[in-house]
């Protein structure tokens, strides 16, 4: 029996992550994505006509992000028209899922070179647009679950939102506001330190005069965080312990062993494992916990085998609950800060995390890195990379 083909990462690049209303806010999403695609082609030296497909994640695919933005980004970069593109929506995990689809295509033997990534301009299209703004444009006033008899029969009329989910996690795992603020402050400290030490320099392709992530706040403090009002009356969450609304894009080149040889590419990592799992869609954001356990079991690994972990900091409670369930050195988790400091351009974050994780494994000499993130609908992707 022939061995299953492997999928390798041969390149990874991202834009800086821009603040809402910041240096990237006026860049068309197609041009944001085009920038990282052009940079990926340049840095890897690949013939773009040899790419089999382009898979991009994007959430709220409306307005300038509509019309299959993966295809639009590729064409806006001036790249060959014969290469197709497809856009994926697994909510916040969209571009991590894009990498999974790319790797699965390569591992199946149906493709040799696939570009995976994602793009999001949240300054131009706020997070609520698809569920509220777009609905209102059609004369509707409710979100995506309203009017579904099947949903109502299963989950009732209860509120479904990321904010409620984050509060439910804090309650379920006994996470205090003080603990979340301590974690959030550490995210900024880590991100500021990483930027100051030049850890992000290799992975970033500057754009529009923006050379570094705009989100980290060197002037924040526990005292400033403690002074903020909760997002809901009586709640524990504040803006300080939530991810930032952001703009950005990222892209990776996924290649087969045959493509590595044919195109003279250097493999930087191997996709060791990929999976996705789901759980309670009302609590929504705790799926990284069962998804991580599932992935480690499937991969025949333990948490102690990991040298690096990236968990998207949608809210501090998400990561803190995960840490309560797994016996791992907290210093290995988001060592360069996370979305609380660096920002969360929804459709691009999965690819941004993977790009950062790959570069950090290379910097430290670590072997295995695990990436996971909570996603709308109570889902989570898990990817385990082996640095080569």
Automatic annotation (TrEMBL):
Keywords per UniProt: Acyltransferase, Transferase
Residue span(s) of domain Thiolase N-terminal: 8-256
SUPFAM superfamilies: Thiolase-like
PROSITE patterns, per database record: THIOLASE_2
Record-annotated Thiolase C-terminal domain positions: 266-387
Keyword Iron on entry: no
Pfam families: Thiolase_C, Thiolase_N
Claim: Transferase is one of the keywords in the record: yes
Superkingdom of this protein's organism: Bacteria
InterPro entries with a match to the protein in the record: Thiolase, Thiolase-like, Thiolase_C, Thiolase_CS, Thiolase_N
Signal sequence range: none
Family in the record: Belongs to the thiolase-like superfamily. Thiolase family.
Protein's name according to its UniProt entry: Acetyl-CoA acetyltransferase
Taxonomic path: Bacteria, Bacillati, Actinomycetota, Actinomycetes, Streptosporangiales
């Amino acid at each position: 029996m022939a061995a299953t083909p492997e999928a390798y990462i041969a390149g990874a690049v991202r834009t800086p992550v821009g603040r809402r209303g910041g240096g990237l806010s006026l860049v068309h999403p197609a041009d944001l994505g085009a920038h990282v695609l052009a940079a990926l082609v340049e840095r890897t030296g690949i013939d773009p006509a040899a790419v089999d497909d382009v898979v991009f994640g994007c959430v709220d695919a409306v307005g300038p992000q509509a019309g299959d933005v993966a295809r639009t980004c590729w064409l806006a970069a001036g790249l060959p028209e014969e290469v197709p593109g497809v856009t994926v929506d697994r909510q916040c995990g969209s571009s991590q899922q894009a990498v999974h689809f790319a790797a699965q295509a390569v591992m199946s033997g149906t493709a040799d070179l696939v570009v995976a990534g994602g793009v999001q301009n949240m300054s131009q299209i706020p997070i609520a647009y698809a569920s509220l703004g777009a609905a209102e444009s059609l004369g509707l006033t409710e979100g995506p679950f309203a009017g579904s008899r099947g949903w109502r029969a299963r989950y009732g009329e209860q509120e479904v939102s990321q904010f409620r989910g984050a509060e439910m996690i804090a309650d379920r795992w006994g996470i205090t506001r003080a603990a979340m603020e301590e974690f959030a402050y550490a995210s900024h400290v880590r991100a500021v330190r990483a930027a100051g030490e030049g850890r992000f320099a290799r992975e970033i392709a500057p754009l529009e005069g923006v050379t570094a992530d705009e989100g980290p706040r060197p002037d924040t403090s526990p005292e400033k965080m403690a002074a903020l009002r909760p997002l809901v009356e009586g709640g524990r969450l504040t803006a300080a312990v939530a991810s930032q609304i952001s703009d950005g894009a990222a892209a990776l080149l996924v290649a087969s062993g045959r493509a590595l040889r044919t195109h003279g590419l250097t493999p930087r990592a191997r996709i060791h494992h990929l999976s996705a799992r789901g759980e309670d869609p009302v609590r929504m954001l705790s799926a990284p916990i069962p998804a991580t356990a599932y992935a480690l079991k499937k991969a025949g690994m333990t948490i102690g085998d990991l040298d690096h972990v990236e968990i998207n900091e949608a809210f501090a409670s998400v990561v803190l609950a995960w840490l309560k369930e797994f016996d791992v050195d907290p210093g290995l988790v988001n060592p360069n800060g996370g979305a609380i400091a660096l920002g969360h351009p929804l459709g691009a974050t999965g690819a941004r995390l993977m790009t950062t994780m790959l570069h950090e494994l290379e910097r430290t000499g670590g072997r295995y890195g695990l990436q996971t993130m909570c996603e709308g609908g109570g889902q989570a992707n898990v990817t385990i990379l082996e640095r080569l």
